[in-house]
Specification:
Length: 398
């Protein structure tokens, strides 16, 4: 049994790239997120924000894809084998797998801040971005360490590196999965538990973990129950429906193709979160039943992006708000706004990928390798003991 599913890594890599693009837009074209024509810099902003074109910079949809993928990936080995050792092993490693790279990304942002390399605040008046300055955090090293190791994972903290708001969801969502699998993962009536969780988390990002786990259950518990969906029309239908819901706008939907998705007396309901999560689930379903999509996202460029995805996600924002902001600050007095933004993107993006490549090779991959050896050392004796017991039982029954 392979350690990972290549085409899912490819989708994760593409989603990470969309998150990078979304933050370029958030800094240099904030009107697409805030819906304010008075701060628009480009003619396309108002139109793109309210049409499926926003899939190109819809970072929230990509985050929901991450959560659904996590629900799927963290549970599929258990459903495939019904062996709880996979749960224990994943649970033991999960905090460290997330915390080591994330904490180092916080430290990097802290170093940028204390060395005076933060330039985001210098360009905010020009770009009209209302995004909080990530380098306005405390310069106290103890505060930084506490943020990196605790608040990031247990209180939705995002100081120093704002993209880390997802880490609490990732950690707690992971243990939601582990707890579910241990409690009801072997019971046939667990479908009722899925329904209960879906109702509880209908207005929360944790819904993505529930959807991902349910898809994993359908795919790997015995026979492939998703196979009945393999019809000539189902993949295009599910993909179009998923991308339609995933492109639900950040700004007002009145008069758009999304207006039918709202209902009255729902001002406190997070439509973006719900529809982006549902869209991610339908998109993943299309991928799971389509050999062509699986083959496409298993190609080497997507595989490489999948390897880099976590590192790119962790580092890009710090680089954007330091080096990217510096480049734009030097270009804008000399060139038109649009040209300055385009050149900033072209110069900054390769640096982001270079840093992500280095970070993956020397931090993320090393962390995965060390944790893998650690887990194997702890659980391999248990696996061998269980295998001997099964073999002995078969021998006695002969």
């Amino acid at each position: 049994m392979t350690s990972k599913i290549a085409y899912l890594d490819g989708v994760r890599g593409l989603a990470a790239c969309v998150v990078v693009v979304s933050h370029f837009f958030q800094v240099f074209a904030p009107s697409v997120f805030e819906g304010k024509p008075e701060i628009a810099h480009f003619a396309f902003e108002g139109f793109a924000a309210r049409t499926p074109l926003n899939l190109l910079f819809n970072g929230n949809f990509s985050v929901c894809v991450f959560f659904v993928l996590s629900g799927f990936v963290l549970s599929w080995r258990f459903f495939h084998t019904k062996d709880r050792i996979h749960i224990y092993s994943s649970a033991l490693r999960r905090y460290f797998r997330l915390a080591v790279p994330a904490a180092l990304s916080v430290f990097l942002a802290y170093v940028v801040m204390v060395l005076g390399l933060a330039y985001f605040d210098d360009i905010r008046q020009t770009t009209s971005s209302s995004m909080p300055d990530p380098f306005a955090a405390s310069p106290d090293v103890l505060v930084m360490v506490q943020e990196a190791l605790f608040h990031t994972f247990f209180s939705y903290g995002s100081a120093y590196n704002p993209v880390l708001w997802t880490m609490t969801y990732e950690l707690l969502g992971s243990f939601l999965i582990f707890g579910f699998l241990l409690a009801v993962g072997r019971f046939r009536l667990r479908v009722a538990a899925y329904a209960v969780l879906a109702v509880i988390f209908i207005d929360s990002y944790y819904l993505g973990f529930v959807f991902g786990m349910a898809l994993s259950d359908l795919k790997y518990s015995g026979r492939d129950r998703l196979a009945f969906l393999r019809r000539p029309w189902t993949t295009p239908f599910l993909l179009c429906a998923g991308l339609y819901l995933g492109s639900y706008p950040y700004v007002g939907v009145e008069g758009t193709i999304y207006s039918i998705l709202t209902w009255p007396n729902s001002s406190n309901f997070s439509f973006c979160v719900f529809y982006h999560t549902l869209g991610a689930c339908l998109t993943l379903t299309a991928l799971l039943i389509s050999p062509r999509l699986q083959s496409f996202f298993s190609r080497k460029p997507f595989s490489y992006l999948g390897d880099l995805s976590f590192s790119l996600y962790l580092l890009h924002f710090t680089i954007l708000c330091s080096l990217g902001a510096f480049i734009f600050d030097r270009l804008h007095p000399r060139f038109p706004y649009g040209f300055s933004v385009a050149l900033t993107v072209l110069l900054t993006t390769p640096i982001m990928f270079a840093f992500a490549h280095w970070f993956y090779r020397f931090v993320d991959a090393v962390t995965l390798s060390v944790l893998g050896r650690w887990s194997k050392r702890i659980f391999e004796p248990m696996v061998r003991k269980k295998a001997r017991a099964v073999k002995a039982e078969k021998t006695e029954s002969m």
